[in-house]
Specification:
- The chain has 9 helices and 13 strands.
- By secondary structure, the protein is of the alpha/beta class.
- The protein has 2 domains: 119 residues, D-Maltodextrin-Binding Protein, domain 2, CATH 3.40.190; 92 residues, Periplasmic binding protein-like II (D-Maltodextrin-Binding Protein, domain 2, 3-Layer(aba) Sandwich).
- Strands 7, 8, 9, 10, 11 and 12 form a 6-stranded mixed sheet that branches. A 5-stranded mixed sheet has the order 4-1-5-13-6, with helices on both faces.
- Strand 2 and strand 3 form a beta hairpin.
- The longest helix is centred in the first third of the chain and has 35 residues.
- It is globular.
- Bound molecules: arginine.
- The site of arginine has 14 residues, from loops.
- This is Basic amino acid ABC transporter substrate-binding protein.
- Keywords: Membrane, Signal, Transmembrane, Transmembrane helix.
Length: 273
Amino acid sequence: MRWAAKQKKVVARIKWLTLGALVAAAIGYMYWDTEINPGSAQHTSSSGSGLEKTLIMGTDPGFKPFEYKNGQNVVGFDVDLVREIAKDTNRSLQIEEISFDGLLPALQAGRIDLIAAGMTVTPERAKNAAFSTTYYSAAQRVVVPKTGSTVESVDDLKGKRIGVQLGTTGDTLAHKITGASVVQLPATSNVMQELNARRIDAAIMDNGPATQYLATNPNLTMLARDLTKEDYAIAIKKGNTELLKQVNDSIKAMKKDGRYDALVKKHFGAAAP
Ligand code: ARG
């Protein structure tokens, strides 16, 4: 009799504990869903724009003219492009700054809706993300000091110290060069610093930013040859077919109605390659 009463008490206590745990889990999930994982829901915009939904773009500034800082703001071709996509799909735009090698993980984790970061479409990346139609053709170039460089042609890269931004196609490419010691740095600006200090012999990076850096670094130059030809596209989480279609439709519309050309002119001052 005493034992049965005790057991009843225990059962009641377990019931309360279970209920408590469920309530805590539900509250925790609600918090996670809205605060930590905003990409998971169609949430209201806090920008006061009156738009229903927010489009969260992940990017890594320091890649002029595609994305760079103007004071506190992230600006550039990619930003303007996605701003138009947000407009076309009736969303407000929110930008998250994430280091380049963290962009695809952030997309997969649902922290951002898309990546616009001068990101090259590669078969390897396409395994983990969906890519929009391409919006820009780029190339990898070799940047070297103007005087006294030990690298005068692409063949000279063998066995040299090559600086790259971590996780980029330039990084992958440098690793294929025989005997090269690849110096992986968090940002393209760090690569330029190392090259100016001559702690690396050459840098491999995208032609657009390379051209921009050369304009402000008179001691540096670029080898004539392109190492690769590659295409930039917007990355979207695999399975998010609705957003992928909207992005593609928007890019198509922009190419047709002149908005795309206007952006090229604004950021490159000339026609798209
Ligand atoms: N196109 C190269 C890649 O996809 C480099 C991109 C770097 N982009 C940036 N925003 N830092 O790997």
